[in-house]
Amino acid sequence: MIKVGDNLPATTLMEFSEVEGNGCSIGPNPVDVAKASAGKTIAIFALPGAFTPTCSAKHVPGYVENFSELKAAGVDEIWCVSVNDAFVMGAWARDQKTEGKVRMLGDGSAEFAKAAGLTLDLTARGMGVRSNRYSMLVKDGKVASLNVEGPGKFEVSDAATLLAQAKA
After folding, report:
1. Of 144, 119, 147, 150, residue with least CA distance to 134
2. Given 14, 55, 89, 105, which residue is catalytic?
3. Annotated catalytic, 24?
4. What torsion do the CA atoms of 108, 112, 117, 123 make, to the nearest 10 degrees?
5. Phi/psi zone of residue 140: left (φ > 0), alpha (ψ -120 to 50 degrees), beta?
6. How far apart are CA 45 and CA 107, in angstroms?
7. Are 144 and 162 in contact (CB under 8 A)?
């Protein structure tokens, strides 16, 4: 499992763009994790799936609500990573009103989750291999803090916890 001091996995996530601009076309666009995190402080939180109960009711809304406080604490970007395709993440972004606050990044084949050693096998529940629920503060591509949830829990990966770590 990835740990504090490690570099983020050198993978590519996918992001759905609603508008064309800055060299990005409408639709799914690749996000090279190493390039996108270089020189930035990023609050990353990951979860098992888009539109799932805890993720939609608590996890994403907490980061949207704490956007300004996280920015004030030195966070450049907030990323939500889930084992879903970019189209699903784009629809979820619209539903959760994350535009301009949280980048909704799809890890469609769980490559990022696998490389980080943070997978969750939900095959028995019909969901396949997913991402575990966690949050991490990343500085210049390196993990500065990591908060991994226990099975079925939502206690340490919330926005308030990561905000306190960003302020420390």
Report:
1. 147
2. 55
3. no
4. 0
5. left
6. 13
7. no
Structure tokens at 53: 């109960």
Q: Which domains does the chain have, with CATH numbers?
A: 12-17+26-167 (3.40.30.10)
Q: Which tokens is 164 given?
A: 């306190």
What is the amino acid identity at position 134? Answer: Y
Alpha-carbon gap, residue 129 to 67, rounded angstroms: 29
What single DSSP character describes residue 133? P
pLDDT digits (tens, 9 = 90+) for 110-165: 999 999 999 999 988 888 899 999 999 999 999 999 999 998 899 999 999 999 99
Q: Is 150 exposed, middle or buried (0-12, 13-18, 19+ CB in 10 A)?
A: exposed
Tokens representing residue 63 in the block: 């980061």
Q: Model confidence over 4-38: pLDDT tens digits? A: 999 999 999 999 987 655 655 677 899 999 999 99
DSSP 24-48: BPSEEEEEEHHHHHTT-EEEEEEES
Joined together, the tokens standing for residue 47 give: 């979860």
Of the candidates 41, 123, 135, the one whose C-alpha atom is nearest the C-alpha of residue 81 is 135
